[in-house]
Amino acid sequence: MNVADALFARAAEAPDRVAMHYPDGRDGYRAMTYCELAGEVDALARGLSSIGVTPGMRVAVMVKPGPEFFATMFALFRAGAVPVLIDPGIDRGALKQCLDEAAPEAFIGIPLAHAARIVLGWARRSVRIVVTVGPRVFWGGHRYRDLLSPLPPGEGAARSAAGEGSGEAKRGVDTRTLTPDPSPGGSGEQLAAILFTSGSTGVPKGVEYTHENFAAQVEMIRAAFDIRPGEIDLPTFAPFALFDPALGMTTVLPRIDFARPGRADPRVLVAAIERFGVTTMFGSPAVVGVLATHGARLPGLRRVISAGAPVRPDAVAALRALLDDGARIFTPYGATECLPVSVVDAREIEGVGAAGTARGEGILVGAPVPPNLVRVIAIDDGPIPNWRDAQEVGVGVVGEITVSGPSATTRYFRRDAATVLAKIAEDVGDSGAGGQGTRVVHRMGDLGYFDAGGRLWYVGRKSHRVVTTERTLYTEQVEGVYNTHAGIARSALVGIGPRGAQIPVVCIELAPGVPRGEFARIERELLALGAANPITNGISRFLLHSRFPVDIRHNAKIVRERLARWAAHRIGPA
Q: What is the pTM of this model?
């Protein structure tokens, strides 16, 4: 199944349902129905084909969240082309490397993206088709709106209800009740998209997604969170919003900078929730923190889903106090390569999760989402070619988390070495075709363990573990102990020196309103707090940091590599 087919099925079922509300002008919003969105997708897919975009062609997409972003992605799916998504906020050198590596033949972007493409030489050798969302400038190529016109006779009704959004002339689209005919380009096992990781835990890598991966994600998300057609979602992470049309939800795109969700104005988010009767919100832990601190009631919101980094139990408790009775908060665990892996809700986070985190047991990430098979294996920094070479560990033993299932991706684009390190082949018996069937097991690069109740706990990234001459320390276990101190906002464990002889250092961010002059006292209290727990006993180095570097995607995940370099410079060689 091509992932675009789900959109056309929803348009056939409820053509007049609003697909999205999006900002237009200073204070207003415009609406776009499912029929209008499907019509625009169909028109754009035809238009892209008319300028040479073919099935299998890689197409870089740098478009701001809005109707054009949704239509572009689904039109590429429908045409069988392969959109390439890269976080525009990553390091310029890394972004250029990603685009050169992906070698897209087409580039669809806003004028600023095209200007950067030309000046910085992004994919200079591969791009030959250019489409601009907005006014076309000196680089030529095609305008997005012009690609909407090549429609068959009788399919050019104006999109009157939604308006233009970007201020351009109204676009010709098919506003019939569309039938969910199978998309002509792309099927289940074919490459659907290349999504680059943020690079916050290493070099950005292009994750290959098939249509089957996307379809499985849609069904797993629907089941895990009991999402039903007609619900209204407010996402603060644009790519996650792409699931909404397939789920039959209405998307509300708030007036925020999607590249910096942690700096979103909570008043804007609350106003959008109230205005449109939002039932579901997807936000990073940074957004949860913003809303919890703001303290305004969030009536009607039934479900909050927060992912991208662990969410502190106190932030979960503060947000839950603002919701109606019966509303739920979920924190799914996963990664670009595999999502969702497991899910935990607020009741467990505030109960067994909070208590365990404070004791140094890590972060509770819940029960695996069916039909995932989640297993924990002994820590190994090298490749594991076959599952028989892996050593599965028992209950309570920390190891690397692995996942196999329909949403788990199988390889990185043009990164064979990374694929070898992250994937394990597993024989699964007779495939029915006269031979042995195999499946790919994804190594998360995360460490954790299962407790006696079958719940998964996360203790940190494998690359972030600190190995001293005496023991191994895990970031989330150590930080959970220190984060109980009221005077600090958060802590971060890093290691200085070669692995096996590292010196553990805990960096500290003070809580809002706590003066820097209090750090000497707080440091003494942290020493005493750590000495009383076997997880942290013996840690003696603390450094005050004004603001931790965080990932550009969710504004929540600590970039420990940069923090470790900073700490090493402050303390000196180990």
A: 0.91
Beta carbons of 357 and 455 less than 8 angstroms apart: no
How far apart are the C-alpha atoms of 533 and 527, rounded to whole Å?
A: 10
Could you give the CA distance from residue 478 to residue 521 in angstroms, rounded to a whole number? 20
pLDDT digits (tens, 9 = 90+) for 257-314: 887 888 889 999 999 999 999 999 998 888 888 999 999 999 899 999 998 777 778 8
Peptide bond just before 371 cis, omega within 30 deg: yes
**Cα–Cα distance measured from residue 118 to residue 401, given in angstroms and rounded to the nearest whole number:** 42
435-493 pLDDT, tens digit per residue, is: 468 999 999 999 999 999 999 999 999 999 999 999 999 999 999 999 999 999 999 99
CA dist., res. 186 & res. 27, Å (int): 39
Q: b/e for 107-127, b at 16 or more Cβ within 10 A?
A: bbbbeebbebbeeeebbeebb
Helix (H) or strand (E) holding 193: strand 191-196
- Residue 307's identity, in one-letter code, is A
φ, ψ (nearest 5 deg) of residue 153: -55, 135
Of residues 193, 255, 311, the one with CA closest to residue 556? 311
